[in-house]
Amino acid sequence: MTGDRRSAMVIGGASGIGLATARTLAAEGYRVTVADIDEAAARDAAALLGGDVTAIRMDVTDADSVATGFESAHGVHTVVNCAGLSIPGAITELDLAHWQTTIDVCLTGTFLVLKHAGRHIAEGGSIICIASLNGRQPGTGMASYCSAKAGVLMLVEVAALELADRGVRVNAISPGLVDTPLVAGISLVPGLTEEYLDNTPLGRSGRPEEIAEAVAFLASDRASWMTGAAIDLNGGAHLRRYPDV
Ligand code: NAD
Fold first, then answer.
1. Ligand 1 center from residue 36 Cα (angstroms)
2. InterPro entries from the entry (predicted)?
3. Cα of 165 to ligand 1 centre, how many Å?
């Protein structure tokens, strides 16, 4: 086992699930680097969390930016990719540019993170990618996001195969609806959220901290035999059909 076992890089760590993850890992004693395209927000997050938390700018759609970030974090033990966005739109209406942006951030971004994390992570390290319930359940008006997240689930499986000989585990978490700025900032099809929550067995949306707990588990030796897996974390929403409104 090499590298610093208590070091973590949380990409997209300035907000929502990433911020909660950075907070949880810091509380567990990890030295955390918050990496985000929004450098000012990343710095604010690091200042908020205090302790051994630092911030860097990283744009997951930019190969040089991702490469540089990981070169400076050589030997990191835990990498969490929470960077993401969604630009909704029906297929017949969706601009190519909007399709491409979601694919670039969610899918190509995951590829670039896996590529450079795979090169620089410590032997025995853990990579966790935040996918989505929409990676396996289609949602009206969410073609680019669903397609990207389906790709993320497959990328995680391929990376798990390719990195296993170095003892690096690669897993995904597929959240359902979680209360974060991402959800607040997009206008989904009217009625979708209400119907989705009515259809969720535990009857509510998730909190970012509930995703962070699963990340902390996957990062730890408690998950030492787990790779190529995806955890459904959604109040049971995967047990029912995604609403079609
Ligand atoms: P958020 O908007 O609160 O946080 C996303 C973070 O990613 C932001 O800090 C943003 O600056 C950063 N980011 C965006 N583009 C980036 C880029 N190119 N390079 C680096 N950083 C970038 O969103 P969130 O809800 O916390 O989402 C985190 C992840 O969880 C995303 O992958 C999202 O798709 C996924 N997810 C969210 C939900 C939900 O309901 N909130 C559900 C399922 C999956």
1. 10
2. KR_dom (IPR057326), NAD(P)-bd_dom_sf (IPR036291), Sc_DH/Rdtase_CS (IPR020904), SDR_fam (IPR002347)
3. 30
Of residues 148, 167, 127, 184, the one with CA closest to residue 10: 127
Q: 3-state class of 116 per DSSP?
A: helix
> Does 24 contact ligand 1 (Cβ within 6 A)?
no
Dist CA 142 CA 39 (whole Å): 28
Q: Whose CA is nearest to atom 33 of ligand 1?
A: 84
Picking from 74, 76, 162, the residue whose alpha carbon sits closest to that of residue 124 is 76
**Best CA proximity match to 36, nearest among 7, 6, 16:** 16
Is 241 within 8 Å of 134 (Cβ atoms)? no
Distance between CA atoms of 129 and 16, rounded to whole angstroms? 15
Query: Rounded to whole angstroms, what are the CA distances from 75 to 46, 59, 218?
Result: 21, 20, 18
Query: What global pTM score does this model have?
Result: 0.97
| Count of residues in the chain | 245
Question: What ipTM is given for this predicted complex?
Answer: 0.99
Which active-site residues does the annotation give? 145
Q: Please, are residues 79 and 172 in contact by the beta-carbon 8 Å criterion?
A: no
